[in-house]
Design brief:
Largest sheet: 12 strands, antiparallel
Strand content: 35-45%
Organism: Amylocarpus encephaloides
Helix content: under 10%
Number of helices: 6
Protein name: Peptide N-acetyl-beta-D-glucosaminyl asparaginase amidase A-domain-containing protein
InterPro entries: PNGase_A, PNGaseA_N
Keywords: Signal
Pfam families: PNGase_A_C, PNGaseA
Bound molecules: 2-acetamido-2-deoxy-beta-D-glucopyranose
Low-confidence stretches: 2-28, 534-539
Number of strands: 31
Distance between the termini: 30 Å
Mean pLDDT: 89
Number of domains: 1
Structural class: mainly beta
Shape: globular
Length: 599
C-alpha cells in the first residue's frame, strides 16, 4: 500500500489519520475549468487481440465510485448477454481518480469465485485515468449464468485522502468461431461469503482457509488456480528478516518471519503443490515516485498460480467430500517452515473438466514425493547494537515435489504426473539502523504436467524467472514539520517466462496461443521528498527537479499468433510524462536486469 519506512504508520492508517490535525485540505474534484488532461497511467502489456472491433455485444457490469468504501463492497448482478453468440469474453476496466490516496487492493468476485485481483494506481491532484483489458474466457460457465457481482476496493476517503476511485468494467463478447471446451464446473476454495454480500477471500494467517468440496465422480481433469498476495505487514515480505535478526538494530524497523514465502495447496492433509510468489510491487511500493505513469509488472492484474491436481482424481472422485486448504508459510530456523505476519489475502478455484463418456474416474494410489525444502541461511549477528554496523543476510531455498498416479477414464488409462522444481535466493544488506537497504532476490521455477501414453494431453510445462534488485534509503527528518525527509530508491527487476497456461489451454484448445514467451524488465531510480503533513506526504511525487526520477521498461512477448514489443521511458516528478514510447510488431531484445549480488 505504500513505501517502506513509514509503514508502521500506514499499516494503521485509521489510527494515523484519526489523530491528524490536518483539516484544511479541500477535496480534489474534477472541475469544469480544469485544463490539465488526466494522466494516463499504464501497465505495459501485449494487446489481447489484433483488434477490439467487431464485438458481438457488450455490457457494463460494474459502474461504481469507491469513496469511503472500507468494508463496503459494490454489490451488483450479472446476466449473460441475450441473443449474443460469443466465445471470447474480455473485461475492460477503466478507472479515474483525482486527489490524494494510496494504492488500494481490489477483488472482483462472481458469487464465491474470484475472477480478478488488482491494485489501483495512486492518483495525482489533477487526476489519473487508467484502463486494463483482461480475458475471462476461462470462466465461460459463469459468464453464461446469472451471478452476484461483489467488488471489494477498501478505500479511505476523508479530508486527507481525497481520491475516490471511479471504476467502470465493461464486458466485451466476441464470436471467434472456435469450439470452446470450458471447465464444466468451477468450485471455490474460499470463505463463501457472497450470501452475506462480502467478498470470499481468506485472510492468513488468521483464518482457517479450509474448504470441503465434493467433486463429481467422473472428472477427467482438475486444476486449481490460486490468487494470493501479501498485504499489510506482508506487502514487502521479501525484505523481511529471519526472527533472530529482527531486533538487530534494537528498533522496530525490521519485520520478521524471513523473506521467504510459500503458498501451499493441501488436499486431505497432503501437500499437493506450492507457489513461491512473484514479488509484486504495488504503486506505492519501494518508492511511489517510481510508478507514475508506468506501474509495476502485473499491478492491474495480479498473477494467479496453477496446480494440476489430476493425479489425485482416483481419491477425489469417490463421491465423498475432501478438504482443500490454503496456507502461507515462511522460513523458520527452528521448525523449517513457520507462520507469517498479517496478512495474506488468498482464495482459489478448482476448474473441473468432466469425463462425459464415463461414470466414475478410478485411480491407483498416488505416489508422492514432497521432501521439505532445503534452506541455507547466512545471518550476520556479530555486530549487534552498534550504530554504524550493517546486517547482511543471505537465504537460499530449493524444493521439488511430484505426484503421480494411474488414472482411468472412458478415454483410457494414463499415468499422470505433476512436478515442481523451485529455487530461490535472497540477499539483503541493511545499514543506517535499518533505514538504508539493498535487496536482491531471484525466484525460479518450473512446473510440469505430463501424461503417458499421450492422448489428448500434451506435456505442459511452465517455467519462470523473477529477479528483483532494489535499494531504498530513508533519511528521516529529525523535525518532520520543519524539514523534508528523503527517500532515495532504485529498482531493477524482470519477469521472464515460457508458458503453456494450463487453464486457457484446456479451455481454448483449438486456438493454441502457445507457447507464450515473455521477457520484461523495469528499472528506474528516484528521489522522493515528503514531510509530516500527511496530506503532502501522501500526494508528493518526487522533487521539483524531476530529472532525478526516471523509470524505463522493455517488454517482449511472443505466442504462436502474435509478436509484440514495447520500450517506454518516463520522467517522474511533478509533471510525470512518457519521454519514450516505441511499439513493435515483433519481439525486442530485453537487456538483463542488473542484480548486483545474485547470480
Ligand atoms: C476500455 O475503456 C476505455 C474507457 O472507456 C476505452 O478508452 C478503451 O478503448 C476501452 N477498451 C476497449 C478494448 O474497448
Ligand atoms: C464515474 O465515471 C462514469 C463513467 O465515466 C461517469 O459517468 C460518472 O459521472 C463518474 N462519477 C463520478 C462521481 O465522477
Ligand atoms: C445484498 O445486497 C443487495 C443489493 O444491494 C441487497 O438487496 C440485499 O438485501 C443484500 N443482502 C444482504 C444479506 O445484506
Ligand atoms: C480448519 O477447518 C477444518 C474444516 O472445517 C477443520 O477440520 C480443521 O480442524 C480446522 N483447523 C484448525 C486449525 O482449526
Ligand atoms: C541492544 O542493547 C539493548 C540495551 O543494551 C538490549 O536491551 C537489547 O536487547 C540489545 N539488542 C539485541 C538485539 O541484542
Ligand atoms: C454409465 O452408467 C450407465 C447407467 O448406469 C450405464 O448404462 C453405462 O453403461 C455406464 N457407462 C460406463 C462407461 O460405465
Ligand atoms: C559480519 O559482521 C562483522 C563485524 O561487523 C564483520 O567483520 C563481517 O565482515 C560481517 N560479515 C558479513 C558477511 O557482512
Ligand atoms: C553492506 O552495505 C555497507 C554499506 O553500504 C557496505 O559497507 C558493505 O560492504 C555491504 N555488505 C555487503 C556484504 O555487501
Ligand atoms: C543512507 O542513505 C542516504 C541516502 O542515500 C545516505 O546519504 C547515507 O549516507 C546512508 N547512510 C549510511 C549509513 O549508509
Ligand atoms: C512539504 O511538502 C510540500 C510539497 O509536497 C511543500 O509545498 C511544503 O512546503 C513542504 N513543507 C515543508 C515544511 O517543507
Ligand atoms: C520539501 O520538498 C518540497 C517538494 O516536495 C519542496 O517544495 C520544499 O521546498 C521542501 N522543503 C524543504 C524545507 O526543503
Ligand atoms: C536501465 O538500465 C540501463 C542499463 O541496462 C541503463 O542504460 C538505463 O539508464 C537504466 N534506466 C533507468 C531509467 O535507470
Amino acid at each position: 500500500m505504500a513505501f517502506m519506512l513509514v509503514f508502521a504508520c500506514i499499516s494503521l492508517l485509521q489510527s494515523c489519520t484519526a489523530g491528524s490535525t490536518v483539516s484544511t485540505v479541500t477535496k480534489n474534484q474534477p472541475s469544469n475549468d480544469a485544463v490539465t488532461p488526466l494522466l494516463d497511467v499504464i501497465q505495459v502489456e501485449a494487446p489481447l487481440r489484433a483488434s477490439y472491433g467487431g464485438a458481438s455485444c457488450k455490457q457494463t457490469i460494474v459502474q461504481h465510485e469507491f469513496a469511503a468504501s472500507y468494508g463496503t463492497p459494490y454489490i451488483g448482478s450479472y446476466s449473460p448477454p441475450k441473443d449474443c453468440k460469443f466465445t471470447t469474453t474480455i473485461f475492460n476496466m477503466s478507472v479515474t481518480s483525482y486527489g490524494i490516496n494510496f494504492d488500494r487492493l481490489a477483488l472482483l468476485y462472481f458469487g464465491d469465485i474470484e475472477l480478478w485481483r488488482m491494485t489501483t494506481a495512486m492518483p495525482v491532484r489533477t487526476g489519473i485515468f487508467y484502463k486494463y483489458e483482461k480475458d475471462l474466457t476461462i470462466f465461460d460457465s459463469l459468464l453464461r449464468s446469472e451471478e452476484k457481482i461483489i467488488m471489494t476496493l477498501d478505500n479511505i476517503y476523508n479530508s486527507v485522502f481525497t481520491g475516490s476511485y471511479n471504476v467502470t468494467i465493461t464486458a466485451l463478447y466476441f464470436d471467434d468461431q472456435e469450439t470452446l471446451t470450458p471447465a464444466d464446473n468451477i468450485l471455490p476454495i474460499s470463505s463463501q461469503s457472497s450470501s452475506k454480500n462480502q467478498s470470499s477471500a481468506f485472510s492468513l494467517p488468521g483464518d482457517n482457509a479450509t474448504t470441503s468440496l465434493t467433486l463429481p465422480r467422473n472428472v477427467e481433469r482438475a486444476v486449481v488456480s490460486i490468487l494470493a498476495s501479501g498485504n499489510g505487514a506482508e506487502e514487502f515480505w521479501f525484505r523481511n528478516v529471519i526472527n533472530e535478526n529482527k531486533g538487530f538494530f534494537n528498533n522496530d524497523i525490521l519485520y520478521g518471519y524471513s523473506p521467504f514465502r510459500e503458498v501451499q495447496l493441501i488436499i486431505d492433509g497432503s501437500l499437493a503443490g506450492v507457489s513461491w510468489p512473484f514479488p509484486i510491487v504495488f504503486t506505492g511500493g519501494i518508492s511511489p515516485g517510481l510508478w507514475v505513469p508506468i506501474v509495476g509488472i502485473d499491478t492491474y492484474d495480479l498473477p494467479s498460480f496453477e496446480i494440476d491436481i489430476s493425479p489425485w482424481l482416483g481419491t477425489l472422485c469417490d463421491g465423498n467430500s475432501h478438504s482443500f486448504e490454503l496456507k502461507v508459510v515462511g522460513y523458520d530456523s527452528q521448525t523449517t517452515l513457520g507462520t507469517v505476519n498479517s496478512n495474506w489475502v488468498v482464495s482459489a478455484s478448482v476448474f473441473i473438466w468432466s469425463d462425459h463418456g464415463g461414470n466414475q474416474t478410478h485411480g491407483s494410489s498416488i505416489e508422492s514425493q514432497t521432501p521439505a525444502p532445503a534452506f541455507e541461511v547466512m545471518p550476520n549477528v556479530t555486530s549487534m547494537n552498534t550504530t554504524n554496523s550493517n546486517l547482511f543476510s543471505k537465504l537460499t531455498a530449493y524444493r521439488f515435489l511430484s505426484h503421480s498416479a494411474t488414472i482411468t477414464t472412458s478415454s483410457g488409462i494414463r499415468k499422470l504426473t505433476w512436478r515442481q522444481d523451485l529455487s530461490y535466493t535472497n540477499i539483503q544488506n541493511y545499514t543506517a539502523l535499518g533505514y538504508n537497504k539493498t535487496l536482491s532476490q531471484h525466484t525460479r521455477g518450473i512446473s510440469t504436467f505430463s501424461a503417458t501414453p499421450r492422448k489428448h494431453f500434451t506435456t505442459i510445462s511452465n517455467s519462470y524467472s523473477w529477479p528483483i534488485f532494489f535499494t531504498s534509503n530513508n533519511v528521516v527528518s529529525p523535525d518532520p514539520k520543519a524539514t523534508n525527509s528523503t527517500l532515495v530508491a532504485s529498482i531493477d527487476r524482470s519477469s521472464q517466462s515460457h508458458t503453456i497456461p494450463i487453464i486457457p489451454y484446456l479451455t481454448q484448445s483449438v486456438s493454441l496461443f502457445i507457447p507464450q514467451v515473455l521477457s520484461t524488465r523495469q528499472n528506474g531510480s528516484c528521489i522522493y521528498f515528503w514531510n509530516n503533513t500527511l496530506y503532502e506526504f501522501a500526494g508528493a511525487i518526487d522533487p521539483a527537479d524531476g530529472t532525478l526520477g526516471a523509470t524505463e521498461q522493455w517488454y517482449s512477448y511472443k505466442d504462436s499468433q502474435e509478436s509484440y514489443g514495447r520500450h517506454v521511458k518516463a520522467i517522474d516528478g511533478y509533471e510525470p510524462v512518457l519521454i519514450l514510447d516505441e511499439e513493435f510488431q515483433n519481439t525486442i531484445s530485453v537487456p538483463e536486469a542488473d542484480l548486483d549480488m545474485v547470480d
